[in-house]
Amino acid sequence: GWFRRLLHKSKPSSGESSLSTSRSASSSPSSSSVESSSSSPSTSLASSVCPSPVSVDISASGSARWTKSYDVCICHSEVDLELVEELVAYLEGQPESFRCFLQLRDATPGSAVVTELCDAVQNSHCWVMLITPGFLQDPWCKYQMHQALAEAPMANGRTIPVVKDVDRKDYPRELRNLYYIYMALKEKSFKQIRDTVFRYLQELCRSSTSGM
């Protein structure tokens, strides 16, 4: 009797068989289908969906740039004043008209040196440290460097070391976790400083806009 029932058992239709086959194929794609999907237009479309950084006008009124009095403070020794004046003239002559704090020019007469150095750091977005032999011997330069590092311990692009005529072994240990600009060609170094300040200000303005 069991053999007879086995012979009369209904077989699945061709439609059901093909459906179950297609389900099986869709749940376990072959390696060839994976390879083709990796190069499919949908992948390139997904990558193109990631937004590129939006250009921000740092000179727009109301931007985060104007929350501080200066865009950049130049920390330097007196023996490097001539070079620093050239750098300041270059930055202030850019289309963005970067606002620079130059101690000899902008410090308040009669004010305490400590007060002026601290105010310059706190009221500037970025700080250029011109690391030269004169800088290493000037205690006020080191003081201002420490104030800048205390203001922004993680730097975030605000502290910009610029090295000139200093051996690696003499480079301040406090700055060794930061990339620096080596001043070999003056014009190239000036442009690197300008680009770094501009990049920080643009990111600052972009972040403040997105957070509103």
UniProtKB/TrEMBL annotation:
One of its GO terms (cellular component) is cytoplasm. Residues 12-53 have a biased composition (Low complexity). It comes from the Eukaryota. InterPro entries: TIR_dom, Tol-interleuk_rcpt_adapt_Tirap, Toll_tir_struct_dom_sf. GO terms for biological process: positive regulation of canonical NF-kappaB signal transduction; positive regulation of chemokine (C-X-C motif) ligand 2 production; positive regulation of tumor necrosis factor production; toll-like receptor 4 signaling pathway. Residues 1-54 are annotated as: Disordered. SUPFAM superfamilies: Toll/Interleukin receptor TIR domain. Residues 1-11 have a biased composition (Basic residues). GO terms for molecular function: Toll-like receptor 2 binding; Toll-like receptor 4 binding. Pfam families: TIR_2. Residues 68-197 form the TIR domain. This is TIRAP protein. It comes from Thinocorus orbignyianus. The lineage of its organism: Eukaryota, Metazoa, Chordata, Craniata, Vertebrata. The gene is Tirap.
